[in-house]
Design the sequence.
């Protein structure tokens, strides 16, 4: 059995032989999953550990372009879902993947996306165990959309929540600001920019486990995605009922990203990352957490960027390079749409 067409047709969503060929030859072949059943049967020793809790998350991905420097929509789908589990203290184990495919989509593109997803899942230590495909008519989508759900386990005694952040806790950022958002903007080609920026898209499960082993007192963590660091910190400040103060001079930013933001009038605090997280840890464990991050490739640029304080509850403030202070608020809209 072999796919006869180089592009997706409506027949590939019709439930018949064409659809089965697409599912088996593109997705099941890449993921190693059983396309003959409508559900995954999950068995893992961790499910029997006393005090273990399940963590479950889901996310949809609509990035454009679907392939970009440093990754593609499949990489974001796997890494983003793994990261949503990991920052809650969960060890990611299983993923599902559902595809909405526009008629006319290149099947070679789907093969590349599926191969990326398998590669990233293997590296993150998770399995893609079930999924779905739907085909829609031309103009009803934009090439391909991917929805992933993830299931993981939280070990007994582990509790990461923003509400647990305390005054004096240290804020650590694991990587450079805004690399993904800047890479997507440059890749769209609308502005004839040649910034040479790659997305930082990466799975952070292994990084989180290393940090938690070195600094078990970590209070909370968030991955820095849509809305950037500013949005993540505002959400955490609101949940903790504290003020978070960050230092502008401590924020890690590539020169290329800084230049792009200056040209376009963007604030890097609101640019998305897909391979960075921010966490809060007690002061006496900050050094151990930072060292554990920097020992891994995805945390090599980790740095302390600020602290939690007892000031105005829910406020995020920035100490500027000129010695002043400004409020860092949530965006009312979106600086850059369809980035993940």
Sequence:
């Amino acid at each position: 059995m072999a796919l006869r067409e180089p592009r997706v047709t409506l027949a590939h969503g019709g439930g018949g032989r064409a659809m089965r060929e697409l599912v088996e030859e593109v997705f099941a072949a890449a993921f190693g999953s059983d396309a003959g059943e409508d559900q995954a049967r999950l068995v893992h020793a961790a499910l029997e550990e006393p005090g273990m809790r399940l963590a479950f998350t889901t996310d949809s991905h609509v990035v454009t372009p679907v392939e970009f420097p440093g990754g593609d929509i499949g990489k974001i789908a796997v890494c983003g879902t793994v990261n949503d589990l990991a920052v809650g203290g969960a060890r990611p184990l299983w993923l599902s993947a559902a595809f909405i495919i526009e008629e006319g989509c290149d099947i070679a593109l789907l093969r590349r996306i599926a191969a990326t997803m398998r590669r990233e899942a293997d590296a993150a230590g998770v399995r893609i165990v079930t999924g779905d495909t739907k085909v829609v008519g031309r103009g009803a989508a934009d090439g391909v959309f991917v929805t992933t759900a993830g299931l993981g386990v939280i070990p007994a005694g582990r509790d990461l929540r923003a509400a647990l952040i305390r005054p004096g806790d240290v804020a650590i950022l694991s990587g450079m600001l805004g690399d993904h958002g800047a890479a997507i903007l440059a890749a769209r080609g609308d502005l004839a920019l040649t910034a040479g920026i790659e997305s930082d898209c990466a799975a952070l499960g292994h990084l989180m486990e290393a940090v938690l082993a070195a600094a078990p007192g970590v209070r909370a963590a968030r991955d820095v995605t849509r809305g950037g660091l500013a949005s993540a910190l505002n959400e955490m400040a609101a949940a903790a009922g504290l003020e978070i103060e960050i230092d502008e001079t401590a924020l890690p930013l590539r020169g290329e990203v800084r230049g792009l933001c200056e040209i376009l009038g963007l604030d890097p605090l609101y640019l998305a990352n897909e391979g960075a997280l921010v966490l809060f840890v007690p002061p006496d464990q900050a050094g151990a957490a930072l060292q554990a991050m920097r020992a891994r490739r995805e945390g090599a640029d980790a740095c302390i960027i600020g602290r939690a304080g007892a000031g105005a509850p829910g406020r995020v403030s920035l100490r500027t390079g000129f010695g002043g202070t400004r409020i860092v608020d949530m965006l009312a809209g979106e600086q850059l749409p369809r980035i993940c």
Q: What stands out?
A: Residues 10-38+46-154 form a domain with the 60s Ribosomal Protein L30; Chain: A; fold (CATH 3.30.1330.10). The chain has a mean pLDDT of 92.
